[in-house]
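Extended Data, panel c. Modelled sequence:
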Amino acid sequence: MKLLNFMSGLLAYVGPNGESYETRAEYLDAAGFGWLETLLSALESIVGPILIVVATVGVIYAIYLAVMLAKAENAEKREEAKKRIINVVVAIAIMVVLIFLMYLFSSNIHWFMNFGRRE
């Protein structure tokens, strides 16, 4: 039943008593968590530009490492460049997953707030 509430919650902000809200801000304000909307809005507006900057730096660094891999004269330098490329790819993947989870949490805050309540 919780999963069904979560799926329906993706489409609308529905309070624990069945009341419906147009926006996340209205829902949080009615629940007494108006400050949380301010925090989530600030995070969402900051994360986008940070993601762009970090992704750009990561891509530039990955290109630099690929050039170093191509120019490597011995196996030791080649292995070091491979390890660094793997680290960059893993770091970017983790960052994207964390950003996705943050947006998922912030857009479905109403479901998480009602998760522990009995129906």
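The first helix runs from residue 2 to 9. This feature is highlighted in the accompanying rendering.
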